[in-house]
Amino acid sequence: MKLYEFQGKEIFKEYGIPIQSGNLIYPHDSLDHLSPPLVLKSQVLVGGRGKAGGIKLWDGSKDIKKMIEDLFRLKIKNEKVKAILALNKVDILRELYLSVTFNKSKSTSVIIAGISGGVDIEKVAQGYKKQIYFVPFNSLLGISDFQIRFITKKLKIEDLAGFKKIVVSIYQIFQEYDALLVEINPLAITPKGLIAIDSKIELDDQAHFRHQDLFQKLLKEIQAVSGDDLITTKSVDDTITYIPLSGNIGLVSDGAGTGLLTLDLLAKYGGKVANFCELGGITSPEVVYKALKKVHQDPNVKSVLVVLIGGFNRMDEMAEGIVKFYQESPMKIPLFIRMCGTKEEEGKKLMDDAHIPIDDNLHEAVKKAVQKAMEN
Amino acid sequence: MSILISNDTKVLVLGITGKSGSLQTKIMKEYGTNIVAGITPGKGGMEVEGIPVYDFVSEVIENHQIDAAISFVPPQFSKDSCLEIIENNIKFFVITAEGIPDHDVVEILQYANLKGTKILGPGSAGIIAPGKCKIGAHPPRMYIKGNIGIVSKSGALSYEIGKTLSENSIGQSTVVAIGGGPLWGLKQTDILPMFEADDETRTIVMLGEIGGTMEEDAAEVIKKLISKPVIALIVGKYAPKGKSLGHAGAIIEGNLGTVESKVDALRNAGAYIAEDSLDIIRLIKQIEGK
Question: Which positions in chain B touch A143 (Cβ < 8 Å)?
Fold first, then answer.
């Protein structure tokens, strides 16, 4: 779950990280209490809003009402602007980059600090490795003083105490909120000290179970702004991943690895995939039943391929779900099933009894599904 | 020899009374795995498939020698049970659960590192040495004994390739599924040198997929440490492009992670690149001169 800037900054404030004062503005709010200079920032969850014109400075010379209306008309990477954060302008002497996240390939936590922050931080990372510092730390021990002093020296920061407070705070947020990323970009050096100009926080949906009230509250705020009920945190039980594509073959697989292999094989044999539904490793008759319903809803689907190879996943349970679907909805669209693995004998018997043919060989099943999609 | 496990590895099963845990225990035992004890807190004194169940790992250790453990505990309770295994100095541990919060996984892995426990997973389907032992969910009929070592991210893909090899009468020494990530205990870079040192393994098959930089890291290891032939299959060439992970992800990964970058790195390291599952058979026959 990604948080809006204003949500992140409320958390920053709670943890004592300096931020600019300001107001959140919704469409049709009164603007009478505002006075220049203000930075008007569109609240969206996608990146690159500055370059898309989503951030404006109001110095008092233009009509604020018009500026706000223009921002509310903006769409940034398909995301409509539904709230604007109006912040008091500060004088920036220098911009830094600071974040805490996981270095996944090394399985450690890491502080990332950049001597120059701002909108082109990825380019800085690729072009000027020397200007970005990766400081890994052990999650059981937390961040040590020497690591903070090291970053302070490399980033040429004079205010050691102020910077230390910020690093410790983002680390605490990272831990206490089960965050995947806490990012300040830019962190500004100003005549009044260090100030977090932006916030980007992403929380781990897998940790929902231990922050139920908190995550629910943040999610409600997100839905109130975006008006989008579709943004939900993934529940652990909901293991289906559904990806719509543009071809005419529906694909259901019970593992990401074989799903990806099957996508490649479908392409090899000339097929085009309409949608891809991955069930996850441990599943149930209901899950495969729902997945079949989902792939059949796409009107472009001409054949459906189900690729099952059970380890944890039981073929007797898969067969139960498939048979239920088959009996409820008379097959207009040809269905090809490759089934093998754990409890396969029991599964094959259920399929035989329902007169549903199955394949054992993946390549054969793929070829049949492609051929049928081409015929229809 | 096989890697990590052998004929007489003595195994402890966590979550042995659960639906998945009890079924997999039955299949593992029938295959010949020496499962000596199980754990489910509050169910100490029970038996599953004739195997004694205990409340605590320390109670197991008092009564049995344990070489390896596997956990079927759900993600919400994983951290506690994993720390208990590591605290009791068990040397090899397979974690099957998917969906453990990243903060928990990092703490488990860092504690395991301090205590010297080798972790396979989380989200791992486990490991099988055909004809000897299996710890995990690998379906037995997909495998026959032989000289190909397989390391895969995905469990299902390691079943698929095992099946394809076995149907072509090509056996395997050990098949390891390290888990789909994004965080791992043992990685491809750890498993490859084990196969290099294993005299039963003649050729190594590495199964990877799009995303992350693990295959690029593996290419470095292949170049420096591996003299045996390595065949690599990277799946996901035709997968829809994924979403970027924000600034921090982009900074760590740069331009790496595509099928092309992985194939380039592996080819430069001297690996044979397979186009799909059947192509692996062709390459094995070519390499082994059959």
Answer: none
Domain that holds residue A79: 21-88
Backbone angles phi, psi at B275, to 5 degrees: -80, -35
Interface contact flag, A122 B251, Cβ < 8 Å:
yes
Tokens representing residue B123 in the block? 């989200």
Average pLDDT, stretch A121-146? 80
Segments of chain B assigned to CATH 3.40.50.261: 126-287
CA distance B113 to A140: 11
- Among all residues of chain B, which has the CA nearest to that of A274? B240
Contact B240 A280 (CB under 8 A): no
- Name every residue whose Cβ is closer than 8 Å to that of residue B190 and which is 6 or more positions away in sequence: none
Residue B285 contacts residue B229 (beta carbons within 8 Å): no
A270: nearest Cα among A374, A359, A362: A374
DSSP-derived pairing of the beta strands B145-152 and B203-209: parallel
Query: For residue B30, what is the enclosing H or E element?
Result: helix B19-31
> Is 0.90 exceeded by the ipTM?
yes
Is A109 in Cβ contact with B252 (below 8 Å)?
A: no
Q: With a CB-CB cutoff of 8 Å, which residues 241-280 of chain B face chain A?
A: 246-252, 254-255, 275-278
In this structure, are A28 and A137 located in the same domain?
no
Q: How far apart are CA A102 and CA B94, in angstroms?
A: 22
Q: How far is CA A368 from CA A44, A256, A271, in A?
A: 45, 21, 10
- Residue B190 has a CB neighbour count (10 Å cut-off) of 17
Query: Looking at residue B257, what is its pLDDT?
Result: 73
* Residue A187 structure tokens: 């962190």
Residue with tokens 């059981």: A140
pLDDT at B245 over 60: no
B103 is catalytic: no
Residue of A nearest to B185 (CA): A107
Give me A72's structure tokens: 């509310």
Rounded-to-10 torsion of CA A221, A224, A227, A231: 20
Task: Quick: pLDDT tens for B192-220.
Answer: 999 999 999 999 999 998 888 889 999 99
d(CA A168, CA A162): 10
Residue A97 bears catalytic tag: yes
User: In this structure, which CATH number among 3.40.50.300, 3.40.30.10, 3.40.50.720, 1.10.3720.10 belongs to the domain B10-120?
Assistant: 3.40.50.720
Q: Which of A132, A180, A260 sits opposite B235 (nearest CB)?
A: A260
Please tell me which of the candidates B111, B250, B276 has its beta carbon nearest to residue A265. Answer: B276
What is the pLDDT, as a whole number, of residue A246? 87
Degrees, nearest 5: CA angle A339-A344-A345 = 125
Q: Which residues in chain A have their CB less than 8 angstroms from residue B235's CB?
A: 257, 260-261, 263-264
Q: What is the CATH number of the domain that holds A298?
A: 3.40.50.261
Residue B156, H or E segment: helix B155-167
Q: Model's pTM, two decimal places?
A: 0.91
The three-state secondary structure class of B70 is strand
Nearest chain A residue to B209, by CA:
A257
Per-residue pLDDT averaged across A122-133, rounded? 65
Among the candidates A234, A261, A295, a domain finishes at: A234
- CB pair distance less than 8 Å for A254 and B156: yes
Question: Over the stretch A263-297, which tens digit does the pLDDT of each residue have?
Answer: 999 999 999 999 888 887 667 899 999 899 989 98
Contact partners, residue B213, CB within 8 Å, separation at least 6 = A105, B253, B256, B257
CATH number of B126-287: 3.40.50.261
